[in-house]
Specification:
5-stranded mixed barrel, OB fold (Dihydrolipoamide Acetyltransferase, E2P), alpha+beta, single chain, 15 strands, 2 domains
């Protein structure tokens, strides 16, 4: 074979090989890029079978979280918010987002904004799942729309977020299980409860809400706190409505887990956010349905002038 022809063939084969390698590299790069670009829902980040409630994606950098509606901005700061995806109203639907380096990533946002989060790291911190915004990852929050309705709170039985159990040896309080994990950071509501104890928890700011119809069963009680409540004043530990033996038709709030086993704490707490979260029972509610309406008036009329003869 002519030497020049042989050289030409070898060059063509080399070019074909290089082209094939380039195509393989591009294909692999495309697959990796697609995987990295896949937006994760809050549900996918939160839903877990871990008995301690830890996210299966703990420690992972999330290129994009499809996000949800801001339901709470922690008072006095713009470094921590709660975001809930209205597409998952029954569980695993909310997450806390924190600007850990306080770089202003959460400035200029409001409750009711629908946001998506880019380049945040999933982190379990003291029992709660966070999307941590770390400066070196160049994270961001994008407002997709504004003035959205806040998702309706999910009504749960108080027994689903049951109070922790006292450990007589350690002196601490520990959750009997983590079945309430699916409600973490979500807006939930419990009904017909009464305050039976105060001065509990890490900061002595927790109180017990007992199911009114099951007054002696500890499995029908939960812990609550008001440290997120925007209507608190000064150094108050509790909202003014929260007093011993106060009965509530309902209490709404964000469920948070606080875990610090080294300090003998592991419990869930229902955090109220404003006065409207606390619906007090009133004696004018004669039939006890937590509504003062004509049905109460009708019952009142049955006893009009009763006993006067």
């Amino acid at each position: 074979m002519n030497k020049d022809i042989q050289i030409k063939i070898e060059r063509e084969n080399t070019m074909k090989t290089k082209l094939m390698i380039l195509m393989i590299v591009l294909a692999v790069f495309s697959m990796v890029s697609s995987a990295l670009a896949k937006p994760y829902s809050i549900y996918e980040i939160q839903c877990t079978t871990d008995p301690n409630g830890n996210s299966q994606l703990n420690g992972m950098l999330i290129g994009e979280c499809s996000g949800g509606i801001i339901t709470c901005i922690f008072p006095g700061t713009r470094t921590r918010i709660v975001v809930q995806d209205p597409n998952y109203p029954d569980g695993w639907g909310a997450i806390q987002v924190k600007d850990i380096d306080q770089m202003g990533y959460l400035d200029n946002i409001s409750i009711g904004n629908y946001v998506r989060i880019l380049n945040a790291t999933v982190e379990e911190y003291r029992g709660t799942t966070f999307l941590q915004m770390i400066a070196e990852n160049q994270p961001s929050v994008t407002v997709v729309s504004s003035n959205n309705l806040i998702p309706e709170p999910l009504i749960v039985d108080v027994s689903e977020i049951v109070s922790p159990v006292y450990g007589p040896i350690s002196g601490g309080y520990f959750a009997a299980d983590h079945n309430a994990e699916k409600y973490e950071s979500m807006l939930i509501s419990i009904e017909n409860v009464i305050v039976t104890a105060v001065d509990l928890g890490k900061n002595s700011d927790n109180y017990v809400l007992q199911d009114y119809d099951n007054p002696d069963d500890p499995n029908f009680s939960c812990w609550a706190s008001d440290y997120l409540n925007n209507d608190m004043e000064g150094e108050q530990l509790y909202h003014p409505y929260v007093v011993q033996d106060q009965r509530f038709c309902s209490i709404t709030g964000i469920l948070e887990q606080y875990t610090r086993v080294s300090h003998d704490w592991d419990y869930y707490q229902l955090l109220t956010t404003y006065t409207g979260d606390l619906k007090r029972y009133t004696p004018a509610d004669i039939n006890g349905d937590c509504m003062v309406d004509f049905s109460d008036f009708a019952e009142f009329c049955q006893y009009w002038l009763w006993g006067t003869e």
